[in-house]
């Protein structure tokens, strides 16, 4: 057999044969470049608009003419899609005049259509939402994006504005986020001017929420007083209705008598006095509570027990820091607090009645006897009388009106000694020693033991 190679004619190329694997069942494959292509397309669309090439429609707003491309507007803005694809006069017009929208807002929305990007500020957000959502452009994607942005920028200063915008422009997720923020931070928000400026309907709605984060129903009563005080002459008439939103039967009897019944906003109103008397009866006749028929809600707020803050004190890096920070679970953030009066690590910590007691520890050169207390309400540190013995890595706990410090390490030996601090008298005494010396141990209290 002989092999003959035929010459290839000029300008004639041999056919290519790139066979797929024998395992492939089909003769076609797909290449997905959609993400990269989309980015390039947006970039090119913007360049075409800037240069004025291939534009086929003019959007006229406030006398300003803005060139654009029908295909881009129809693909990105539902309003224009309906206009250009239905049998409307505008579908065949080269100039579209839009009333009730300012030129800068329209320019921003067209930039969004061509680039997928839009700059929101609190100065332009209402105009953008009005044009994009409520009026006619039907850009619900913008309202959803607003909700995402607001969630992480919400504060006591803007929460009520955000809630109002969200209700006005039908952004349900933003309403939910605003409500959650108000509920979780009610004790602080209820003291602000923004809260006091709310109208009666909004205030009553908030006060009736079961989800308010309050440690005591008296916080709700104080919020009512703050709101009335802001405009007494016009708001005193709402006192009876607002008082029904306060769950008076849940207040302590002493608070009910001293703070509520003697308050000038309520004691001069017969209707308010009747409500207060009804709450008093709840306490005077506990045997009848099961049959208590009242206009008051008597179920406790869902969040009467506020999640406590988590405090981190001192510690060890290259030095023994005196810094303090705490985690607020209601807003999911760490915050700095006032520093301790002395640097230390391996301290003992106990909590009693909202006060944090820090005992002993190690400052890098010696074990310590010093003691200090942090008041979580005032945010101040106070030095207390020192322990008898220097110690670090001890156990510490509070029980009743006493702080117990057990064991630890004095720099040479583990300790079996126990010291007891009497909170009211600022006095230390020795307690019974343990049966064994130990440090860095654990401690727990169960049923007062």
UniProtKB/TrEMBL annotation:
Keyword entries, A-Z: Kelch repeat, Repeat
PROSITE patterns tied to this protein: BTB
Segments forming domain BTB: 55-122
InterPro entries referenced in this protein's UniProt entry, alphabetically: BACK, BTB/POZ_dom, Kelch-typ_b-propeller, Kelch_1, SKP1/BTB/POZ_sf
One Pfam family this sequence matches: BTB
Name of protein: BTB domain-containing protein
Organism listed in the record: Meloidogyne floridensis
